[in-house]
Write a structure and sequence with these properties.
The protein folds into 2 domains: about 55 residues, no CATH class; about 230 residues, no CATH class. Helix content is about 60%, strand content about 0%.
Length: about 300
């Protein structure tokens, strides 16, 4: 592989033009590339606009830099919308987990092995790993988090409802997965009526991977998570097999499973508006091409009306 060398903005624009990208406004193009970074903008969002079957990189005839930028902006706004609802789910889950566990075992007994599901070697190992990680998180946050240092120095313990604010969504999903089944069911029931505990566990872990994408400002629309959302009736309705449950449409389904009807409708309205906005900015490719990359079927709006 040849070494990548530095190229100034003028040369970068020349490369784009030589590959078929129309530059309508050179001044705007320079400012945009310098502001966003050529790699983040072009390499991140060029794929839908490239011709297929060519031996070298060539763009579909008529492709403009404005279209590539429009997809970049779509993805940026998609991350903002997505993180808003993920944080809402995370906050509610942490609150309910702390409540249900503390109600059953007391506010400071979350570091005791016997208060978790340890049936079988695998579960026992998972709980041991969980508790070790919690000890590390407490230790690393003693001097950073005032609420934790307050309890450690003043009372010699940290209530679970305080600790949950200092651990990640991935951590809380693991905590939930290792709780006793009765308590997991209690949390799921309080989260949303009809939600099963295994579904909530899957949603929390799956959404935590997309939360990380949002937090690191990484490309979202085409991301395929290493985690897969659990099989459910929504996937069945849209005839989606288990190999395709790790894309953005799976995020939409996860929100359908855990959000209230009102909040979910608000989320879907924002997604609809986002697609409408992008559609107006695209002339070279149809909006359905972007939806296909996201794993979203043509009849996706039916998801809103399903129970």
């Amino acid at each position: 592989m040849s070494e990548k060398i530095f190229r100034d903005t003028r040369i970068q624009i020349g490369i784009l033009k030589s590959r078929g990208v129309i530059i309508k406004n050179k001044k705007w193009a320079k400012q945009t590339i310098r502001t966003i970074n050529y790699y983040n903008l072009v390499n991140g969002y060029k794929e839908p606009f490239l011709q297929t079957g060519t031996t070298y990189e060539k763009y579909i005839s008529g492709t403009t830099l404005e279209e590539i930028h429009a997809l970049y902006e779509f993805d940026r706004k998609l991350r903002i919308i997505t993180i808003e609802y993920i944080l809402e789910v995370e906050k509610q889950a942490k609150s309910l987990i702390a409540y249900s566990f503390s109600k059953a075992h007391g506010h400071k007994n979350y570091l005791k092995l016997e208060n978790f599901d340890t049936q079988g070697i695998q579960k026992y190992s998972q709980v041991c790993d969980l508790l070790s990680n919690l000890y590390r998180k407490i230790n690393s946050n003693i001097d950073k988090d005032l609420s934790i240092s307050h309890y450690v120095n003043g009372k010699n313990y940290i209530p679970l409802w305080v600790l949950v604010n200092s651990i990640s969504m991935g951590d809380i999903s693991k905590f939930y997965s290792n709780m006793l089944q009765k308590e997991r069911e209690d949390v799921a029931r309080r989260m949303k009526w009809g939600l099963r505990e295994n579904q909530l566990a899957s949603c929390l872990f799956f959404l935590s991977t997309f939360r990380n994408r949002c937090a690191h400002d990484e490309r979202m629309y085409s991301y395929l998570s290493y985690a897969y959302l659990c099989n459910n009736n929504y996937f069945h309705y849209f005839h989606i097999n288990t190999n395709n449950t790790n894309n953005y449409f799976a995020v939409m389904i996860a929100f359908k499973m855990v959000l209230s009807k009102t909040r979910y409708n608000e989320y879907i309205k924002q997604i609809e508006d986002l697609f409408d906005e992008l559609s107006k900015d695209l002339s070279t490719i149809p909006i359905r091409k972007i939806r296909n990359i996201m794993g979203i079927p043509n009849n996706w709006r039916r998801l809103k009306t399903l129970n």
